[in-house]
Amino acid sequence: MEYTLIATATFGLEKVVANELKELGYEELKIENGKVTFKGDEMDIVTCNMWLRTADRVLIKMAEFKAESFEDLFQGTLAVEWGDIIPITGFMHVTGKSVKSKLYSVPDCQSIVKKAVVDAMKRKYRRDLFPENGVEYKIEVGILKDTVTLTLDTSGTGLHKRGYREMAGIAPMKETLAAALVLLSKWEPGNLLADPFCGSGTIAIEAAMIGKNIAPGLNRSFVSEQWDIIPQDLWQDIRKFARNSINDKEFRILASDISGKVVKTARENAKKAGVEDYIAFQKLDVADFSSKKKRGYIITNPPYGERIGQLNEVENLYKTMGNTFKKLNDWSYFVITSYENFEKCFGKKSDKNRKLYNGRLKCYFYQYFAPKEDKSYNYKNA
Ligand SMILES: C[S@@+](CC[C@H](N)C(=O)[O-])C[C@H]1O[C@@H](n2cnc3c(N)ncnc32)[C@H](O)[C@@H]1O
Fold first, then answer.
1. Which single residue of 55, 169, 273, 306 could bond 7 by disulfide (Cβ 3.0 to 4.6 Å)?
2. Alpha helices of the chain — where are they, by DSSP H?
3. Residue to substitute in 177, 254, 258, 361 for testing ligand 1 pocket (most ligand atoms within 8 angstroms of CB)
4. 257: CA distance to ligand 1 center in Å?
């Protein structure tokens, strides 16, 4: 069956998610705030859950309609054939959000949608009672400026949970954001990569997974794996394909942090992700970071001052970073921080910056590119 699918994205990452979808072969993409919409079938639901590194979730869009009253909401929801996807035993869990709309009471909207979904199920199955003791079908009612979007979540746990990071350091970054930073940097495995504020190792591990072409969903499960609409062998085939897609590239990523404890955690996480052979972990103050390599990449997420450490400490840290990175002449470096005076403290204006959100924090991803004359570096599309 053909569905309208939505890959949800953190604000600022929509184009990165769209690029990933293009790489997977999807062509007609609609990019909006927080989401990319496209068409696909059951196989695409599996593929996208398995392979998207930067999307938060994959949803099936069930309906979109205008609603200014509870009756509009009820009728619009009732018109959908929910029973085509949800079985008799399905656990129908409705979540909601409403922005700038006449229907603003989210709990009321949730109950109306639930009632209408159950009525549609009664129509389809010709029965009155649904035990709801089976697999979860999470329905979201999203209302924006009186337009209702009804979706079903195929991912379950958010896609950032790859299954390797049970332990996190201080202020860990979502795996989806870390993967996005690596993709935005255009790093490729032939080049040296370092994260001198590695914390729980998220950036290094995501980079290693990208380098080895390890599907981010390979070692986790998805709620729709238990859905009747997706044949089990599709999941098996796509997992098998993903396992066979892991390449034999060899590369080295340097991951260091001032805290020995977090370095230990990072190493454990890398082991769980199956990439420990590609990352060299070290307890190191950024002030002591150096490299004999002429070229390389740094992608890093230093403390911001908001969540950990004090502002002036962070300002001094950024000065130290500036002095350290200055010595790495032909390197490219990429720094994400919420601290707005970063460039001033760091001592150099970035070639490009990009607004992104790390959780709720508005951040900038400052990008410094290596000198252009080297032909092997193509920054035009960075
Ligand atoms: C925002 S956290 C990095 C989080 C990481 N991206 C993750 O996903 O877990 C910043 C890290 O910088 C480390 N740090 C603070 N000062 C440092 C310094 N002078 N040199 C190296 N690391 C430092 C902290 O120990 C902390 O782990």
1. 55
2. 14-23, 42-51, 70-78, 106-125, 175-185, 202-212, 232-245, 260-273, 311-326, 342-346
3. 258
4. 6
